[in-house]
């Protein structure tokens, strides 16, 4: 026995055969319309599919570009973050440098004030030096004058000393001359006295014998009396101006 669906197919074939092998126009038109709709749907779907594929490709390209740009942006972000960190560190270094510069500026101001004070002190010292130089020059001139005057006084003193020595020499010569004259006179007087005294006694020969001894004694006495005292000589030597 045949299955039921084979039976149904055979019945359809038999009915078509009974119609002379021609399909009804309505069925044909329906089939054509269905085919047209199917073709149109396929074309529209294929067109949409192509557009979707193109859009998908574009989206993929855009996605790739976006991913690349994102990677670039991430890289830039990292670089910017690193630059930010470096900038912060540089800002810290610059802040420290600024503080040092401020300190150096304060120190420079202090040094400028000290320099101005040193300049004023230098000007004062220069003025004092000029005054001191003028004073020293005046004192030097005064010293030269005093030295000249001292040399003059020394020359005068040497002259006075030489004159004093000459005067002493003359006085010594005069004293010696006076002493000699006194000795001669005393000897003469003593001889005359002794001769007169001994003549009366008749002892002229003995008088002549002892006369030289008496003359020597008298000469010694006269020399002792005529010799000047050391004190007078000392006073004369210590006071040359008075003697002169």
TrEMBL record:
Keyword Ribosomal protein: no
Location(s), subcellular: Membrane
Entry's transmembrane regions: 21-43
Membrane topology reported for the UniProt record: Single-pass type II membrane protein
Skewed-composition ranges (Polar residues): 231-244
Protein keywords: Coiled coil, Membrane, Signal-anchor, Transmembrane, Transmembrane helix
Region named Disordered: 222-244
Entry superkingdom: Eukaryota
GO terms under cellular component: membrane
Family matches, as InterPro entries: GOLM1/CASC4 (IPR026139)
Similarity comment: family membership: Belongs to the GOLM family.
Protein name in UniProt: Golgi membrane protein 1
Organism: Microctonus aethiopoides
